[in-house]
Amino acid sequence: MPSKNRNYRKEYDNYHSKPKQKKNRAARNSTRAMMAKAGRVSKGDGMDVDHSTPMAMGGAKRDVANLRVVAKGTNRSFARTKTARMKQTRNA
Questions:
Q1: What is the Cα–Cα distance from 41 to 36, expressed in whole angstroms?
Q2: Calpha distance 42→82 (Å, rounded)
Q3: What percent of the chain has pLDDT over 70?
Q4: Long-range Cβ pairs for the range 65-71 (8 Å, 24+)
Q5: Using one digit for the tens of pLDDT, what is the confidence trace for 16-39?
Q6: 2-22: pLDDT as tens digits
Q7: How many other C-beta atoms lie within 10 A of the C-beta of residue 67?
Q8: Cα–Cα distance list, 64 to 4, 37, 61 (Å)
Q9: At 1, is the pLDDT very low, low, confident or very high (cuts 50, 70, 90)?
Q10: Which of 3, 51, 81, 91 falls 20 to 30 Å from 57 in CA-CA distance?
Q11: CA distance 34 to 27
Q12: Tally of domains in the chain
């Protein structure tokens, strides 16, 4: 765990304010708005809009057929070891 406090201003200047990241954020926001309009999610429901097929595997970014609604914990967490590191997945 870092001992220093996060410098949110520097983080914004170096990452969040970049044009590419603004476009990515706008795309995520419009995708969630599209799903909200369809009645699949609502504000404060604790759900995330997720891609069922990753783009690297040929999934379309905003194709409704490629989107699903999952719990935040499912979408944002992963298996961890005893020391809280991410477990390595093995390809058989």
A1: 5
A2: 35
A3: 84
A4: 67/31, 67/35, 69/35, 69/40, 69/41, 71/46, 71/47
A5: 999 999 998 998 899 899 999 999
A6: 568 999 999 999 999 999 999
A7: 21
A8: 42, 12, 9
A9: low
A10: 81
A11: 10
A12: 1
- Which tokens hold the place of 19? 């044009």
Helix or strand (DSSP H, E) at 71: strand 67-71
With tokens 């603004």, the residue in question is: 22
Q: Residue 34: enclosing H or E segment and its boundaries?
A: helix 19-37
* Burial 11-45, CB ≥16 within 10 A → b, else e: eeeeeeeeeeeeeeeeeeeebbeebeeeebbeeee
Residue 38 inside a domain? The answer is yes
Per the domain annotation, does 85 fall within a domain?
Answer: no
Residues 53, 34: Cα–Cα separation, whole Å: 18
72 close to 48: Cβ distance less than 8 angstroms: yes
